[in-house]
Amino acid sequence: MENSQKGFIPVMLTPFLNNGNIDYPALTQLTEIYLQAGASGLFANCLSSEMFELSDKEKIQVIKHVIKVANGAVPVVATGTFGGEITKQADFIKEVSDAGVEAVIAITSLLANEAESDEIFNERVFDLLHQTNEIPMGFYECPVPYKRVLKPQQLADFVATGRVIYHKDTSLDLNQIKEKLKLIEGYAFGLYDAYMVHAVDSLKAGASGVSCIQGNYFPELIVWLCDHYNDESLNGEVHAVQQFLIDNMEVMHHVYPVVSKYFLQKRGLNISTFTRRNVGAFTTSEVKGMETLFDDYTSLRNNLNIKVFI
C-alpha cells in the first residue's frame, strides 16, 4: 500500500441494530462517508470493528460488504489471524484473501503470548508466510489481548521477504517509527501510525499515513491533516488541528466505540450506539463530552473550510 501521497486508512466501525445484528445499510453509508471524506484505503475487521465479537462467517460477510461498497475506489485490508495453530490461522488468512482484500493483516499479539520470545514470534511469522503462498500481508500491533510491538529490525526482516506491505504502528514511539522507516526504505510498503499525538511529526518522518480511531469521528479532518501537514503556508492551521487531536485524545477513547457511534449520530448517520463489546456505561458525562467535541470540531471545520457530507 505504498503511495507517494500521505493517506488516511480508517479503522472501520461495525454498525449494529439494537437487537445486536449487523446493520448492513448503516455499514454501506459509513463506508461511503469514509470514501467521500477522502480515505485512501479501508481497514475492515479490526478492533474498532469489534472483530473479536464477530463470528468467522460475520467477519467474511463484513469484509465482502465493504469491498463491494468500495467497488475498487480504494484498497481494503482486513484482519485474518485470530489465534490457534499456525495452520488454522493460515487457513483463515486464505479465506480473507479470497474475499478480495489488498492485504491480510496479522495481529502481532496472537502469534505469540506475552511471555514468549521474539525468536519464537519470528519463527511463527515466517511459518505463517510459508503457509500462505504469495498472499500480501501486514501487521497490526493491536492492544488486545496485549500489545506486542515489533522491533524495527523485526519489521525490516519481514518486509524484506517481499510479502509484507502494510504495518499499523501503535508503538507510540516516534523514534522507533523513524528507525522502522529507515530500515524499510525502498520497499513497496506502507507504515501507518495510529497515534495522533505525534501525527504531524510521523508524517514528516516518512510514514505513509495514519490509521486512527479519530477517523470514526471526523474522517475529513484527518484527511485534511494528511493533505496539509507539510504546507508551510498553513502552519498555524496544522498546529491547531494537531492540538485539537491532542486535547481530545481522552474523551474519544473513553467507552469507545459507543462514543464514536453517538458522535456519528449527531452528524446525521443512521447508526445505533449498540456495541457487542462491554466497554462500560455511556453516561451523561460522556454525552456532554461528545456535545462539546461536536461543537469544537464544527468550529474548527468551519475555520478550515472543510466540506462535509453528513
From TrEMBL:
<dbReference type="GO" id="GO:0008840">
    <property type="term" value="F:4-hydroxy-tetrahydrodipicolinate synthase activity"/>
</dbReference>
<feature type="active site" description="Schiff-base intermediate with substrate">
    <location>
        <position position="168"/>
    </location>
</feature>
<protein>
    <submittedName>
        <fullName>4-hydroxy-tetrahydrodipicolinate synthase</fullName>
    </submittedName>
</protein>
<dbReference type="InterPro" id="IPR002220">
    <property type="entry name" value="DapA-like"/>
</dbReference>
<comment type="similarity">
    <text>Belongs to the DapA family.</text>
</comment>
<dbReference type="InterPro" id="IPR013785">
    <property type="entry name" value="Aldolase_TIM"/>
</dbReference>
<dbReference type="Pfam" id="PF00701">
    <property type="entry name" value="DHDPS"/>
</dbReference>
<feature type="active site" description="Proton donor/acceptor">
    <location>
        <position position="140"/>
    </location>
</feature>
<keyword id="KW-0456">Lyase</keyword>
